[in-house]
Amino acid sequence: MLRRWCIPLAGLAIVLGSVAAAGTASAAPAAPHATHLIRPAVHLIRPDGHGTRPLVAHGGPANAASSTNWSGYAAASGTYKSVSASWTEPTGTCSGSAKYSSFWVGLDGYNSSTVEQTGSEVDCSGSTPEYYSWYEMYPAYPVNFSNTVRPGDHFTGSVTHTSGSSYTLKLSDTTQGWSHTVTKSLSGAANSSAEVIAEAPCCTASGGILPLAHFSPVTFTSASVNGSAIGNFSPTEIVMVDSAGNAKDSVTSLSGGNSFKVTWLRSN
Fold first, then answer.
1. pLDDT, tens digit, for every residue of 176-200?
2. 196, 220 in Cβ contact below 8 A?
């Protein structure tokens, strides 16, 4: 699974509570050799040395997988042209150390080496929560929007493959009254997955996952893939875990095929 700053380490696939190992590691594109900084300054972008994608089992009455930095749902058994969802920016609770969390929709990255994503973030700078929004077309660096973001803001995001190598990414904060529509080109994207995700961004200088900021429960609604509810695509449910396999958050089952809630449990 790719994201703005890394590919998470390999996870264990879980189907109906049992562990199943399947699949192989996927290669990632070359990362920048220098360390680059992005707002807030402690964020490091894709240091060299990536992990491998989680091992995912498909075909049961429910699909599930663990990841070191993703949670939510991913459709990954076909070709996808669009993904969209709505969510309310959660409140960050900060207690003296730097922590990070983001909430987004995107195409690719689950089983491919590009990402086309847009979303919002709440990070902790000491005891102060910082809220902002962004888009990314990896391997290009992420771009932060300058607009105000506050907890409680209602977001709607979408990513659409329009034709050839062209993509349209749209993020709207209907509470603050701003919206961005970005059209970008990215050659070689597979369009092989569509995701609605809460995440602990990556990476530390050594390539590790950053601590997950304590966020209030966030509910994603109207999650849609190719114009239909994401539940119609037998999506994989992903739960974020630490290095010992302990859940860092919880993910509810899909309600109505298009809504679910993510609840923070621990930072590491």
1. 999 999 999 999 999 999 999 999 9
2. yes
CATH at 197? 2.60.120.700
| Residue 195 counted as domain residue | yes
Look at residue 51 and tell me if it is in a domain: yes
The residue range of the domain holding 99 is: 13-264
Write the DSSP symbol of residue 227.
T
CA distances from 167 to 158, 209, 251 (A): 10, 28, 29
Interval 50-89: pLDDT, tens: 223 343 333 333 588 999 999 999 999 999 999 999 999 9
Give the DSSP per-residue string, 171-225.
EEETTTTEEEEEEEE-TT-----EEEEEE--B--TTSPBPPBPEE--EEEEEEEE
Q: C-alpha 135: how far from its chain's center?
A: 11
Q: How far apart are CA 255 and CA 261, in angstroms?
A: 9
**By the 8 A CB rule, do 209 and 200 touch?**
yes
- The per-residue pLDDT for 62 is 53
CA 168 to each of CA 45, 135, 182: distance values in angstroms, whole numbers, following the listed order: 23, 11, 6
| pTM beyond cutoff 0.85 | no
Q: Give the β-pairing of 218-225 and 92-93.
A: unpaired
Q: State the Cα torsion 136-137-143-144 to the nearest 10°.
A: -20
Q: What are phi and psi of 128, to 5 degrees?
A: -110, 125
User: Based on the structure, what is the number of domains in the chain?
Assistant: 1
